[in-house]
Amino acid sequence: MELDEMKGKKAVDEKFCPDCGEIIKARAEICPKCGIRQMAPPPSVNMAPNGKSKVAAALLAFFLGGFGVHKFYLGQIGQGIIYLLFFWTFIPAIIAFIEFIILITMSDETFNARFGGASNKH
Q1: Which of the two ends of the chain, N or C, has the fewest CB atoms closer than 10 A to its terminal CB?
Q2: pLDDT at site 53
Q3: How far apart are CA 36 and CA 109, in angstroms?
Q4: pLDDT averaged over consecutive 10-residue blocks of the chain (122 residues)?
Q5: CA angle at residue 37 from 39 to 25, to 5 degrees?
Q6: End-to-end CA distance of the chain
Q7: What are the alphabetically sorted keywords of the record (predicted)?
Q8: Helix axis angle, 77-85 relative to 91-105, nearest 10°?
Q9: Which run of H or of E encompasses 24?
Q10: CB-CB neighbours of 30 under 10 Å
């Protein structure tokens, strides 16, 4: 490749400075060309491909599970409606507490396989 062709391409461990557009190392804190501090990468949060979080689902099951909020969050609308219809019996709250324990102990891979799709059919 010519030097001009390689100038605009970055390697795997590089990124573009959002301020000046210079290619810099991905872990660089400051751009060597313009001196602008780079944004810190977002903290690593385990989320399913559709953006659902196992921790968020578990917390919703614990605090609002009697109303089926975690079911709506996970895309299980029909089950959420059933929880809403029977919340006054406290049976959905008991089931939601069990689901909280299941969700919190579930591996990230299992959660992503079960709830990570763009649309859930269960």
Answers
A1: N
A2: 92
A3: 38
A4: 54 86 86 84 66 94 97 96 97 97 94 76 48
A5: 75
A6: 52
A7: Membrane, Transmembrane, Transmembrane helix
A8: 140
A9: strand 23-25
A10: 12
Task: Name the residue type at position 111.
Answer: F
Residue 57 and residue 105 in contact, taking contact as beta carbons nearer than 8 Å: no
Tokens of 33: 């060309």
Residue written as token pair 């313009």 = 34
Contacts of 7 (CB under 8 A, 6+ apart): none
Pairing type for strands 14-16 and 23-25 reads antiparallel
**Rama region for 51: left / alpha / beta (φ>0; ψ in -120 to 50; rest):** left
Q: Are 117 and 50 in contact, with CB atoms under 8 Å apart?
A: yes
The amino acid that residue 21 corresponds to is G
